[in-house]
Amino acid sequence: MLKSNTKKKAIFLDRDGTITRHTDNFIVRPRQLFILPHVVEAIKIFNELGFMVVIITNQAVISRGLITPKEMENLHSNLIERLKRKKADIDGVYFCPHHPDGKIPPYNIKCNCRKPNPGLILKAISEFNIDPKKSFMIGDAIIDVLAGQNAKVKTIQVKTGPGHPRLDKMYGNIKPDFTSKNLKEAAKIVKKINKKEL
Questions:
Q1: How confident is the model at residue 3 (pLDDT cuts 50, 70, 90)?
Q2: pTM for the complete prediction?
Q3: What's the number of domains the chain is made of?
Q4: How far, in Å, CA of 48 to CA of 87, rounded?
């Protein structure tokens, strides 16, 4: 069988402001993660449509020394388990621990994985053998949209988080392929496009 015939399709999801409630506090404990309304239903739709669901998130709290990469993995394992109990399945999580203004080596660097760079999405595409043409990046911020565009996937911006006002202004000329009020509405857009492509 040709490798191209085995390529998967994926939904790449931002975390804060898209899956979980945005907060101005640094999130370092599972109890700080509040799953937003409609998220479970949306992920179930993605699962039913045959999409992999992969979280793509910037986590500069690691470079600030507030949490270790292992602790971040445990935090995400807790989130995945909570969603799984509601029959909403996450296939993977990719997080960027870097920030050039961080305090903790080796994470206080500029990198190609911090959104709006596409490094995390491209890594997932490679490791899971994903077809970018059939995949989507969904997030509340323009940096999510730009990361998706840089990775050559379709983009949807949801209105469930504040985005990043300073960066949103910086990248004001960047427009998503679609916008939606929440993740469930984004799932309906994906479902409609997926049906057309069958």
A1: very low
A2: 0.94
A3: 1
A4: 11
